[in-house]
Write a structure and sequence with these properties.
By secondary structure, this protein is an alpha+beta fold. The protein contains 10 helices and 14 strands.
């Protein structure tokens, strides 16, 4: 199989995560040609030949064209209704009202990401505005999207690059590999990672997951972003083995902040009692104890009193 892409593959996603997909494609024998121009397509005796700019030929038995889609706004009488539109779609405000305040537009025709679940979200915004007179507005921050490759790649909020462009070097980037997760190792599906980006105060700006079940795992991060939670909120949730990976990432934030010497930052991220991390139950201590060499202890000083009795060995 050969994939021809006019641009770079998956340009809106985290570049480090896309690199995992490229590596997987190569391992499976899938050829990927990016930033190529196609001059023409010819039928040959045993299939199809695609001629690229420069004369290179790519031959195969079948051809699948994925050229995207564009809004159908012609012959709808939009001019007569006083609705502003262009070949890119219908102009709307953040409440999805068109230039005719009595008319709303939703889905691909309203511009923005062309996702089915995004169109369903639009419908909810319109119902609240049109039927219940509630001033509901579109918020793209918690919008997740998933590319169903294997492994899956999921994103919500800002990528690392977008976060740096908007907030500069004050952001924190936390990353943990599936290879360090017990369940992933047991299932022998260790490719990929989870990456979270926060601002200087620990508020989650975005998350990237590339790996097994990424499409399911990303939903929790979207909820956290929509509620403007800090990364420490992830560590306070009880962790079953299926979700352990998410909490290990939150603990990694704790360690990084402590090793940087920022005591105030760590307090704001997780909260402390008498200089020690605050957890609702012994599981919290157990999670921190699983981190290599108990590095948090080295950063903060003596071992907390009765640590062993709370589950650490």
């Amino acid at each position: 199989m050969t994939i021809l892409d006019k641009a770079a593959m998956m340009p809106r996603d985290d570049s480090e995560a896309v690199a995992v997909i490229r590596k997987t494609f190569a391992a499976e024998g899938i050829a990927l040609l990016e930033k190529v121009d196609i001059e023409r397509i010819e039928t040959i005796a045993d299939g199809i030949s695609v001629i690229l700019a420069g004369g290179r030929r790519v031959e195969g038995s079948h051809l699948l064209v994925a050229a995207g889609r564009r809004p159908n706004v012609e012959n709808l009488g939009l001019d007569a209704a006083g609705i502003v539109f262009s070949p890119k779609g219908i102009q709307v405000d953040d409440r999805l009202r068109t230039s005719n305040a009595k008319v709303f537009a939703a889905g691909d025709v309203a511009g923005g990401p062309q996702f089915t679940h995004w169109a369903g979200y639009h419908a909810g915004i319109i119902l609240r505005n049109a039927l219940f007179r509630l001033p509901a507005k579109v918020d793209m921050a918690p919008l997740p999207w998933v590319t169903y490759t294997e492994p899956e790649l999921a994103q919500v909020g800002l990528t690392e690059a977008d976060s740096r462009a908007r907030f500069g070097e004050s952001i924190r980037v936390l990353k943990a590999s599936f290879a360090d997760n017990d369940r992933a190792r047991a299932e022998r599906r260790i490719e990929g990672f989870v990456k979270a980006v926060t601002d200087a105060k620990g508020r989650i700006l975005g998350a990237t997951i590339v790996g097994p079940h990424a499409g399911e795992l990303i939903q929790t991060w979207g909820l956290d972003i929509s509620n403007r939670l800090k990364i420490g909120a992830m560590a306070e949730q009880p962790a079953a083995p299926t979700d352990e990976f998410v909490f290990e990432l939150a603990v990694a934030v704790l360690i990084e902040a402590d090793q940087s010497g920022s005591g105030a930052a760590i307090d704001s991220l997780f909260g402390f009692v008498d200089g020690h991390p605050r957890f609702a139950d012994p599981l919290g201590w157990l999670m921190v104890c699983t981190v290599e060499d108990w590095r948090i202890q080295q950063a903060r000083g003596p071992e907390p009193k009765s640590l062993r009795s709370q589950g650490c060995e």
